[in-house]
Amino acid sequence: MDKINIEMEQTKKAESVENDEQKWVCDSSVDHKGRVPLRDSTGVWKASLFIIVIEFSERLSYFGLATSLIIYLTKAIHQDLKTAAKSVNYWSGVTTLMPLLGGFLADAYLGRFSTVLVSTTVYLLGLLLLTMSRVVPSLKPCDSDLCHEPRKAHEAIFFLAIYLISVGTGGHKPSLESFGADQFDDDHPAEKKKKMSFFNWWNFGLCCGLLLGVTLIVYVQDRVSWAMADLILTLVMASSLVIFIAGRPFYRYRKATGSPLTPMLQVLVAAIRKRNLHLPSNPSHLHEIPKSETSRRRLLCHTKKLKFLDKAAILDDKQDSIEQLQNPWKLATVTKVEELKLVINTTPIWLTTIPFGICIAQAATFFIKQGVTLNRKIVHNFEIPPASIFALAAVGMIISVTMYEKILVPVLRRATGNERGISILQRIGIGMIFSVSTMIVAALVERKRLNIVHENPLEGSASMSVFWLAPQFLIIGIGDGFTLVGLQEYFYDQVPDSMRSLGIALYLSVIGAANFISSLLITIVDHITEKSGKSWFGKDLNSSRLDYFYWLLATITAVNLCVYVFVARNYSYKKNVHGRTTIAVADCDDREAVA
């Protein structure tokens, strides 16, 4: 009888715990008053929609500026093609590397919500300064064709403004996206499934901002004035900031946990100190956090790779055990060791996706500049701005993301049994195939354009329609829908929970590093080809050989794709995450990945 009563009490207790988990969110997040959040009134889509609105606004501003930047630099600042392309690449590189600093500050000290507020304010100041540089008479540019030198005052304020926008983006991008993903509880099955869709719909909103940026904003720049376009962007950004703040009661917040890099350094120091110790044959003998301390923290179980680091979790019998337990520089937990392994394992993926980023860099520089030389008339006297052709990349990405979410994922789920449809790295790899195709198509189109120029030097390529560029923009857009979205999900999901803003920053740094390498590659190719007779990069497009450069990029990307496939096939996913219950440390290498 007593046994039956005990079983009934245990059943009631389990049901009570389950009901509490349905009512409350117990994933270490808090509400705007610092309390455990109610599941029904916080997070998920009701919070994410506010966050996607401000992302739409930021992408509207960014692409409205970025896609026409090379045109502005050559027209108003009077830079030559090669210098303008490098300037765009440097700015894009800084803009996409700054999130490494912003993501670190968000995870370690400020928290994601506060970082978004501060960085968006800096972004807004940059837009205001940019507007002033085109409105205030003493700061206005010299737009006259007779003016061959830029006005130094305008040049200084202009570059200060766009690099202020870079700083704002540095905090905005990693914090906002990870803050949006934080609105979904990984340990709640329904919310976890919604989270898989979040990155797709996040990019759908991003593409809508991109689409309006390269059509409406670029049209205003081309037909009305640059100042009017900047004023519109400033007002939209200010409005979206108000909307973002209005969603404060619905958000779930994560408190900053201190530097995520310090625990990794502690693991490395502890492992070096214990380099002469022998690893136990059973991983359960390694040190892990006691059960009483893990009620709201997820643990990682042991994996077989990078065994040297496991020595950091050995409790040395020859030393005082209490002192070791109190000193993280002498003893680490299995979870801390595995977190360092996760970061190390992302490095080969980061490196092998850089060539994809180099291909993307061409879309905002040489692809746009090609559009300037082509016939952009659609009907009668209506002529589309050169940068608006970039809208096709957004269309390609929207088509790709929508078809993937609504058609491919349901079909592939049934076919593979994987809740994602295909693995994250497979998704990234598919997009990289599209990047190779983009460069091949771009090389063929540029060759055709040059043939027309040689046949009719006076008219140039003005008789060739700008829509010859449509295939390369559409293909790169479709590739973005696979690779860029995949990289966002990968670097958010596969890094430790304490550094998810930094994880998003790592994804952005792929594009940033690629922009710098693209500039370096232009310099190297220019130097080598100039020595051999004629540089591939002349004063303008008609005296350049961009088709050769595109073939070079296609070759580099194709070779890199083979390396990526090898790396991806040997990658171990972060499949070994336990929930908020503590179990014995176990070896997880043989578990099937569902990521």
Automatic annotation (TrEMBL):
The keyword Transmembrane applies. The chain crosses the membrane at residues 116-136, 201-220, 226-246, 349-368, 388-412, 424-445, 465-492, 504-528, 548-567. InterPro entries: MFS_trans_sf, NRT1/PTR, POT_fam, PTR2_symporter_CS. Its main location: membrane. It comes from the Eukaryota. It is found in: Membrane. CDD domains: MFS_NPF5. GO terms for molecular function: dipeptide transmembrane transporter activity; tripeptide transmembrane transporter activity. Keywords: Membrane, Phosphoprotein, Transmembrane, Transmembrane helix. GO terms for cellular component: membrane. The keyword Transmembrane helix applies. It is a multi-pass membrane protein. Belongs to the major facilitator superfamily. Proton-dependent oligopeptide transporter (POT/PTR) (TC 2.A.17) family. Belongs to the major facilitator superfamily. Phosphate:H(+) symporter (TC 2.A.1.9) family. This is Protein NRT1/ PTR FAMILY 5.6-like. It comes from Nicotiana sylvestris.
